[in-house]
Every structure is written in structure tokens, then in C-alpha cells.
Amino acid sequence: MGIAAKEAAFQLATASTAQKNQALAIIADELEANAEVILAANAKDIDKGREAGLTEALLDRLLLNSERLTGIANDVRNVISLNDPVGSELDSKVLENGMSLSRRRVPLGVVGVIYEARPNVTIDIAALCLKTGNASILRGGKETFFSNMELVKVIQAALAKAGLPAASVQYIEKPDRELVSQLLKLDDYVDMIIPRGGAGLHKMCKENSTIPVIIGGFGISHIFVDESADLEKSLNVVENSKVQRPSACNSLDTLLVHEKIAADFLPMLAERFADKVALVAEPKAKALLSNAQDLRDAGEGDFDTEWLSYTLGVKVVADVKEAVDHMRIHNASHSDAIMTNSLENSELFINSVGSAAVYVNASTRFTDGAQFGLGAEVAVSTQKLHARGPMGLEELTSYKWVGKANYLPRS
Q1: How far apart are CA 378 and CA 107, in angstroms?
Q2: Is residue 136 a contact partner of residue 155, using CB atoms and an 8 Å limit?
Q3: Residues in contact with 339: Cβ distance below 8 Å, sequence separation at least 6, in sequence order
Q4: Are strands 295-297 and 380-381 parallel, antiparallel or unpaired?
Q5: Measured between alpha carbons, how far is 196 from 193 in angstroms, rounded to an integer?
Q6: What's the farthest any 2 CA atoms get from each other in the chain?
Q7: Angle at 118 between CA 70 and CA 168, to 5 degrees
Q8: How far is it, in rounded angstroms, from Cα 72 to Cα 118?
Q9: How confident is the model at residue 104 (pLDDT cuts 50, 70, 90)?
Q10: Neighbouring C-alpha atoms within 13 Å toward the C-beta of 340
Q11: Residue 141 and residue 117: Cα distance in Å, rounded?
């Protein structure tokens, strides 16, 4: 697979934008044309997931329906409309010796992606890698086996119709963990590994890979409600961040509330979240949540938990500094927000938190490639080198130096 992927990457690197876009258009059309088969395969995954005792949050992550499949196809079409970064120049100059020197964007080569129960990731990765001239080797979770098999068939058939090698997108079908270990050591053929999943997957990849690894997709998301915030509008944003899709990696995990408005805001929160969200609170917050229907004391590790469900940690803090200190301790690296009408506090929050995406008076759910106008995303990077936040087209490229001269020897 590594040899085939490297050869495919060589061919993709010189494919025209028109040819790559044609392949993407065929993929989008074939997804809709094969909807019945894809959804039937997904139903098998859902049934097996229920038999295995998967939580409703995990089942939601792997679920496909007609609306979601149409959305995935439209995301592919959005990628077609985006500028192809390959071949563009980052900057250029003419040296004193007469040489023109530029940096030109080029594909990374072969990207290996290991991900868990989200079949839409298969299409997102394939679309973005194809647009940027990268080959990909995919390894999804066993929970989405049947869905991914059908999706990869659609992709490879579309590649053949567009005159591109089927090995441009390959899928590791066997669930053996040993094959993942082999992929992580395939540095002769694979240029980057992107894990999408929980902390355990990221840790395993970091510790075992001989290939550069992009870390992302995991982190505790926070919202801090400042004393100057509009409480009703803040409540709407908090609700969206938590409830709109709790199984997403950018959904809210911990709510921090300024002590001066906590007595007013927390009872409003409990009322809004009645029959919706279980609250896990430290003592100060719990004392103000007496009207909550589902409430328990926060225990060790609760504020380090990415809930991915209808559960929310709640804590009262003295000010923006204490909020930031809490976030620094409890892995604020993904998406975090402040609700405030104070320019001073908003700038302090933006400059202090180490998150890949920071918001002022907006939902953490905006951290998404499509929402950012990137078309889709291959991952959300929470590291600080090469790429941060939603990884779109440009983040799947590198560059090479190009020097042009009139037969100029180095003196």
C-alpha cells in the first residue's frame, strides 16, 4: 500500500486542477447516486454498535442519513470551488546576483489518517487530499467498517472515471492493530500521520510513529462568562455550544462563570438545561444550582473530561485570570470562548489562552473547516507547528524553493 500510494502521489503532484476537480465532482455525484447502498451499510454499523453497547453520543458520531450524506456531497462540491494552492507562490524576490527566488506550494506526498467513528471523515480526507495532490492511506474504526467500505468504493470508482490512480485513496480494511503499528513505521512512503480520535489514539501515535504526527481533535472546550456579559445572549451561546451536537470535538465541556454574576446566571442555566444536560459542579457552583434537575459534585478528573455527551462541568471563578489559570491546567487547546462586553478582558483572554481557536461572544461549535470557509477539514490541529485549528487545503501542502537564473554559477 505504501509503494502504491507513493506512486499515486507522484502522479497526483502533476495532475491539473481541472482533473482533480473533475474527480471531486464525480465523487459528490456518486455519493448521492449510491445513497441507498451507503445508508444500508451504515445501518449495519449502527445495529452492530447498539449490540456492542455504544453510547448514544458515539452512535450519533457514526450515523449517516439522507440529510447528512447530502451535506457531505455538498462539502465536496465546496472544495471544488476553492482555489487550488498547489503551484502558488508564497513570496518571491530577486537577489543581488540576479537570481529570482520564490517559495512554491507543493503537496506533502502521502498522508496517513487514523480515525474513529465518523464516516464523513473518509470523504473529507479524500476530497482535501485529492485537491492538494496528496495520496492518502486511511484507517477508520471498526464501528464504521461497512460504511467506510462503501464510501471507499465510491471514491475509487470516481478516481478511475477521472483518469487518476485508484491508489490515490486506499483503506486498511483489516481491523488488526498490528497493521496500524506498521503504518506508523512506514516512513519510506508516508510523509505525515494525522490521528483523529481520543487522547489514547494521539498518545499511541506520538509514541510509536517514525513519521511526523499532527496532533489534534482532542481538548477540553471552555466558555467563560465574564461579569460584563449579556446573560441572556450568553445563555443562548452556551446552549448552542453544548446541545447543538454534543458528540463533536468542539462541543462545550466546562462552563466557567464570574462570581459576580453567578447567582443570576447559574439558576438561568439550570432552568434552560432541565431535562437536557447533566451538570457536574464544584461546591460554589453547586450551591447556586439548587433548581437543577440532574446535578452532582465534581470529582477528580471531571474537569479533564471531554464529555462528548449531554454532560457539562460548571465552576465559579473570581475573574478572567482565574478562568485562564483553570484552562491552562485542564487542557484548553482546542476551542474556547469568552462572553464579555469588556474589550480589555476579551483581549486578555485572547492573548492568554493557548487554544487553536478562540472566540469572543460566539459558540465553540464554529471550529470547523466548512464554517471557516475551508470547504472541509482533514483534522483540527491543536499543536503549534505547521498547522493549527481546522486543517484545510493550505495545511496539506509544503513548499519548495525555486531559483531561476541565466546560467549563474555560485562564486
Answers
A1: 14
A2: no
A3: 223, 224, 225, 226, 229, 230, 233, 234, 237, 238, 361
A4: unpaired
A5: 10
A6: 80
A7: 80
A8: 12
A9: very high
A10: 22
A11: 6
Alpha carbons 15 and 94: distance in angstroms, whole number = 29
Number of Cβ within 10 Å of residue 213's Cβ equals 20
* Integer Cα distance of 72 and 119 in angstroms: 10
Q: What is the pLDDT of residues 204-221, one digit of tens each?
A: 898 999 999 987 666 799
- Whether 135 contacts 217, CB under 8 Å: no
Confidence (pLDDT) at 197: 76
pLDDT band at 378 (very low <50, low <70, confident <90, very high): confident
Cell (9 digits) for 358: 478562540
Band of residue 116 on the pLDDT scale cut at 50, 70, 90: confident
pTM: 0.79
**Predicted confidence (pLDDT) per residue in 154-186, tens digit:** 999 999 999 999 999 999 998 778 899 999 999
DSSP 40-101: HHHHHHHHHHHHTT--HHHHHHH---HHHHHHHHHHHHHHHHSPP-TT-EEEEEE-TTS-EE
Pairing assessment for the beta strands 397-404 and 89-94 based on DSSP bridges: unpaired
Neighbours of 155 (CB within 10 A): 29
More confident residue, 371 or 152: 152
Could you give the residue ranges of the DSSP H alpha helices within 166-229?
A: 177-184, 199-208
Q: Which residues contact 11 (CB under 8 A, 6 or more apart)?
A: 164, 165, 168
Q: Among candidates 320, 254, 260, which has minimal Cα distance to 282?
A: 254
Indicate the pairing of strand 100-107 with strand 397-404: antiparallel
Q: Is the pLDDT of residue 411 over 80?
A: no
